[in-house]
Amino acid sequence: xxxxxxxxxxxxxxxxxxxxxxxxxxxxxxxxxxxxxxxxxxxxxxxxxxxxxxxxxxxxxxxxxxxxxxxxxxxxxxxxxxxxxxxxxxxxxxxxxxxxxxxxxxxxxxxxxxxxxxxxxxxxxxxxxxxxxxxxxxxxxxxxxxxxxxxxxxxxxxxxxxxxxxxxxxxxxxxxxxxxx
Length: 181
Description:
This protein is an alpha+beta fold and 181 residues long. The protein has helices spanning 24-34, 76-89, 131-139, 142-145, 147-156, 159-167, and strands at residues 11-19, 40-45, 49-51, 63-72, 104-110, 115-116, 121-122, 172-173. The protein has one domain: Alpha-Beta Plaits, CATH 3.30.70.560. Strands 1, 2, 3, 4, 5 and 8 form a six-stranded antiparallel β-sheet that branches.
């Protein structure tokens, strides 16, 4: 009997990162630096933006947000478990939904996968509705690299909605450019 080694498929994905507690820039960098320990390799980083909070808790400090194009062999739910574990290791505490957090890592895209699970949705259902994610994602040419997603998302969010989202863009790029090495 022959032993065979199955190559795990490598997928290119897009992560959104954010922080609004303590040294926000340091928290983002620590997350990026720790990703390889959970099987995720950074390929490219967007600029980092200082953004106002959105969601259920608006009375809190502003966030630093950015996106990271990554490569991984992890399956979607394995990746979710890995980034949630990493968030805890980096000091994230359970708290109010959309409340302050030292680090937040969202899986926005993973290859050509479409997933609807009680734990996650791919592509991320808020990708086109959150300027603090959409603008950094566009910097990383996600529309060209993930053409299948562009078609899926345009069905879900007409061009007019995209224009409204981009038209309201008030995020401020952080001086010093990209944080992620």
